[in-house]
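>> received
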Amino acid sequence: MSSPFYFQWHITDVCNLRCRHCYQDNFTLKNDLDWNGLKTVCDNIFDALNSWNKKGLITLTGGEPLVKKELIPLLEYLNEAKEIKELNIISNITLMDDRKIDELKKFKKLKKIKFSLEGITPEINDSIRGKGTFKTIIKNFELLKSKNVFEVDLMFTLLKSNLKEVPKIFSFAKKNGLDGFILERFIPLGQSMAMKKEVLSKDDWKNLVELLIDLCQVDCNLNDILHLKAFWVKFHPKSRIPSLLGAPCTVGIDGLCIMPNADVYPCRRLNVPIGNLLKNDLTDIWENSDVLFALRKKYNLKGKCSSCNIQYCRGCRALAYAFKGDYLKEDVQCWHED
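>> returned
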């Protein structure tokens, strides 16, 4: 069996928060699928995985997945499927409580709960995620950890206004027994389109990567990890030194995003529809999409990305699309020069 295929499935647009940096612009039920639609998407996924001889790793998110009334039956269906290896949930956890944890813990394949925090103080976090969210998130994070059922990871979106929080968040995560600390770059989409000034410069991004290398005491060349587009700091109970793990771009390689209406995107931040799982077979989308074909071939890229000597790097196609309106143009955050 080969490596898993990754799905980020946004099962609802509905959310109880209105974070300033959110890439959504719709928070209603109008695009949400009912149970029959959700089951059709699942069966489409299972058929594709069987044909590829792969197992699936599915992360359910939203919006806020905990508000989706079909969440539990969906988890039951996915948990029972032989095609699925692992399930995870991304949530703001402001709605997490004992009852929800008891509902979720019965699913053996549900391994990780990932939650967001954008600063180590209420002032910074709440200026982004909304008044009172810091206090609620900390309370519910402590509840999750006390249950000791799931791996709990903190997700942090890198903005110019919270970049200085990274060392503090790192210390907080380590001190409070988090399993991991995930850092992702901000890409302006949806309601956050007006926040382009919050996007890190190429120097900001380079300095951040150097800081992570230092915090995790990693011996490596910057060019060796240039192709990584997000980072996961994994803490170990018996070691004071965490591991620094990186996420290469999955676009066109081993991952896809599914939207609440079953539209398929190359990734959530590259909002270019390439099919719909109520109308198209996933295998057909994956094998015949002109967009994916273009993205897989480095020679199709433009600017310095087309001639870059870093073999496995294709830049961030979502950033290129957000800033240039063309997903083949060069990555505006890349610091590398041949």
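>> The two ends are 38 Å apart (CA to CA).
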